């Protein structure tokens, strides 16, 4: 007979005496645990799973080998096949556990009496009635704890694909719903639009608490007068800058949340939850753009209304599947543009565009138009192009890739003339914004470095921008003055973006160079072998003069300094990045030694470069209160300004970057150069590095007093 384990040598006698008998199955094989024991799992060590005591626990004196809690959620089938416990099995085990506990405590459970309450409604009449036989015995066991119910483990996700029940209600799949994914995106901190990150555990706890997307019937009541005032403010300050607000739907939602009783609210919540969502979103945005609210109070109001919106969003995704979902996501994106609490705008607009693509709104086939009414087609066009406009606006500002390529779009622009019930001019202005997005998409692409057609590209882009400006529908309509001023501001910002693209074609950036020496990282991209650095700088001065860069910066500053832009009416991180771009262009003009505009002396003396830069810093300060990343960029602009003033204008005539007596000038330039590496948008990072490079060269004459 073959020797048995643990008995082949005398040295193993104590082990045999102390070890329990191993359990074997009917066929004589060792029975194993389903999972590692609790002690081995907690110590993260290998467990052989032998019953009743595994080898590591047997070798450790005094160790208790208990089964893992994970075994409570599974059952062992035929041939040791492991399957997750179904809902019925779990319920029966729970009932048996409760019955045994009730018998042990002397509690008799009787059947429930028939009730007239509807099925599924939890009332006191439908609960089991319990009678205590022995009160003393009951108080003796009052401290006992009932066994916990078997929980759901995510590691058994694959095992539950075909398991019962078929219904997705109350199952773990609800955690993966689209509403929860969107709510998860809004948990991220939006203070730095370029980096999706969390701040601290306190922020995480509050975010998860206020964003629990569980549908509730209780409304957040808002007085009708305040709701109507918020809607009027939104239409006056926000609506013409972003996708068209579905006014009829929002008005229906406002009527529901401001009604005298809850009946109207419950009715609209059951039939059209998207209307209530958009009404709350409109009210949430207004305190952020109105100077009547302090910034802290506006953010506080938005946080609570955002939590209410996200609870309703779960109903929207469960009941709606079309234009209403797209419009709700657009309102979330607009919220995130104005407040860092609302999450990552780039991720949210990506969700909205992905939903448009999933619904097929980005493509139109002329053969299918006969099956769809004109009104429905128009609604889909407005929904898609609204997402397109937000996508281009956000991605171009952050320097991120777009959510959809132009070649994949076949949907036509909305035709306001086909909607006789809507005023034509204002609707045409929305379509004009969509055309601006198409133009911005082409300008945001990186130019080919060192190409012979760089001048042609610049002139072509400026020509397209002028054509868009000339076709502006609201130019001659006094009633649409604010729309006209806003689109003029967009035109000036677009010219600034085109000019930055032109500037960067004159430099070569060595991204593979890890040194902190700016002179080794950046260099002029033309005539470097034939011209000295001073002559290259003179060429750059001529380029800046030919582009009318100072005039472009002045036009942008005038747009920022108009009446509605002085305070918080246009507070969004898009405004912050535009002001950052203008500030860097002003610093570039200072660095290359470009003089003030010479065409109109009166206008030239009214806004010198120093004052233009102050306008940019003022706007960045306002936006930086809501988005701390813009505040960091403002400090960086101040630092670059100091470098330009101190190093680009040498008083002694010597090149300060070669001064070996004191390391202060060189260290200032190096620290500023390192700070530019933290700029997110690629084109703005390179522009800032070009400014520091010119300052490090120290070649231009002293012509400023800033």
Automatic annotation (TrEMBL):
**TM region(s), chain numbering:** 570-591
Gene Ontology terms for molecular function: DNA-binding transcription factor activity, RNA polymerase II-specific; sequence-specific DNA binding; zinc ion binding
Q: Name one GO biological process term.
A: positive regulation of transcription by RNA polymerase II
Region (Disordered) residue spans: 1-24, 108-128
Its annotated compartments are:
Nucleus
Coiled-coil residue spans: none
- Biased composition, class Polar residues, residue ranges: 113-126
Biased composition range(s): Low complexity: 1-15
Gene3D superfamilies linked to this entry: Zn(2)-C6 fungal-type DNA-binding domain
Could you tell me the keywords of this UniProt record? DNA-binding, Membrane, Metal-binding, Nucleus, Transcription, Transcription regulation, Transmembrane, Transmembrane helix, Zinc
Task: State any GO CC term.
Answer: nucleus
Tell me the ranges covered by the Zn(2)-C6 fungal-type domain, including all copies.
Answer: 36-67
Q: Which residues form the signal peptide?
A: none
* Source species, domain of life: Eukaryota
PANTHER family documented for this protein:
ZN(II)2CYS6 TRANSCRIPTION FACTOR (EUROFUNG), ZN(II)2CYS6 TRANSCRIPTION FACTOR (EUROFUNG)-RELATED
Listed name of the protein: Zn(2)-C6 fungal-type domain-containing protein
The root-end lineage is:
Eukaryota, Fungi, Dikarya, Ascomycota, Pezizomycotina
């Amino acid at each position: 007979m073959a020797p048995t384990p643990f008995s082949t040598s005398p040295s193993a006698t104590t082990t045999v005496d102390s070890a329990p008998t191993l359990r074997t199955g009917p066929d004589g094989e060792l029975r194993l645990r389903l999972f590692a024991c609790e002690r081995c799992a907690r110590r993260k060590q290998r467990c052989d799973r032998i019953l009743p005591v595994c080898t590591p626990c047997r070798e450790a004196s005094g160790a208790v080998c208990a089964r893992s809690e994970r075994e409570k959620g599974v059952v062992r089938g035929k041939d040791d096949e492991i399957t997750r416990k179904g809902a019925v099995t779990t319920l029966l085990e729970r009932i048996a556990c409760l019955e045994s506990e009730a018998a042990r405590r002397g509690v008799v459970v009787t059947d429930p009496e028939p009730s007239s309450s509807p099925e599924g409604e939890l009332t006191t009449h439908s609960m089991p009635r319990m009678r205590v036989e022995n009160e003393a015995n009951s108080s003796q066991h009052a401290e006992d704890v009932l066994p916990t119910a078997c929980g759901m483990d995510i590691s058994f996700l694959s095992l539950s694909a075909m398991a019962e029940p078929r219904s997705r209600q109350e199952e773990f799949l609800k955690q993966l719903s689209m509403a929860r994914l969107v709510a998860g995106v809004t948990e991220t901190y939006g203070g730095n639009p370029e980096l999706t990150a969390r701040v601290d555990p306190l922020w995480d706890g509050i975010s998860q608490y206020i964003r629990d997307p569980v549908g509730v019937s209780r409304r957040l009541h808002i007085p009708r007068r305040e709701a109507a005032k918020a809607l009027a403010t939104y239409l006056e300050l926000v609506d013409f800058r972003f996708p068209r607000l579905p006014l009829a739907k929002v008005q229906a939602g406002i009527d529901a949340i401001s009604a005298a009783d809850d009946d109207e609210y419950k009715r609209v919540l059951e039939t059209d939850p998207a209307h209530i969502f958009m009404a709350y979103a409109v009210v949430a945005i207004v305190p952020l753009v109105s100077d009547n609210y302090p910034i802290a109070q506006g953010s506080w109001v938005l946080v609570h209304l955002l939590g209410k919106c996200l609870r309703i969003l779960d109903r929207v995704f469960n009941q709606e599947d079309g234009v209403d979902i797209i419009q709700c996501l657009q309102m979330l994106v607009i919220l995130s543009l104005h407040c860092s609490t609302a999450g990552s705008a780039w991720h949210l607009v990506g969700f909205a565009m992905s939903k448009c693509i999933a619904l097929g709104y980005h493509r139109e086939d002329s053969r299918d138009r006969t099956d769809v009414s004109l009104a429905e087609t128009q609604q889909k066009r407005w929904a898609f192009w609204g997402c397109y406009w937000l996508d281009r606006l956000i991605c171009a500002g952050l320097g991120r890739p777009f959510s959809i390529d132009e070649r994949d779009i076949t949907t036509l622009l909305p035709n306001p003339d086909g909607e006789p019930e809507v005023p034509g001019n204002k609707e045409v202005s929305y379509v004009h914004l969509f055309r601006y997005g198409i133009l911005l998409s082409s300008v945001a692409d990186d130019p080919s470095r060192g190409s012979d057609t760089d001048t042609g590209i610049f002139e072509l882009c400026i020509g397209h921008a002028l054509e868009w400006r000339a076709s502006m529908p609201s130019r001659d309509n006094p009633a649409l003055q604010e729309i006209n001023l806003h689109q003029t501001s967009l035109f000036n910002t677009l010219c600034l973006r085109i000019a930055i693209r032109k500037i960067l074609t004159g430099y070569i950036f060595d991204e593979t160079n890890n040194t902190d020496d700016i002179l080794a990282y950046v260099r002029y991209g033309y005539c470097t072998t034939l011209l000295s650095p001073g002559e290259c700088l003179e060429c750059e001065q001529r380029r800046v003069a030919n582009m009318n860069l100072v005039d472009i910066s002045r036009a942008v500053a005038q747009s920022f300094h108009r009446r509605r832009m002085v305070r918080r009416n246009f507070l969004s991180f898009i405004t912050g990045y535009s002001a950052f771009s203008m500030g860097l262009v002003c610093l570039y003009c200072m660095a290359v030694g470009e003089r003030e505009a010479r065409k109109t002396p009166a206008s030239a003396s009214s806004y010198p470069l120093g004052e233009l830069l102050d306008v940019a810093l003022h706007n960045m300060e306002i936006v930086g209160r809501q988005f701390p990343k813009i505040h960091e960029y403002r400090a960086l602009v101040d630092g670059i300004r100091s470098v330009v003033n101190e190093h680009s204008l040498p008083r002694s005539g010597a090149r300060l970057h070669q001064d070996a007596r004191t390391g202060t000038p060189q260290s200032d330039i190096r620290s500023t150069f390192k700070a530019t590496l933290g700029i997110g948008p690629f084109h703005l990072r390179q522009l800032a590095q070009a400014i520091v490079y010119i300052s490090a060269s120290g070649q231009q004459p002293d012509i400023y007093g800033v």
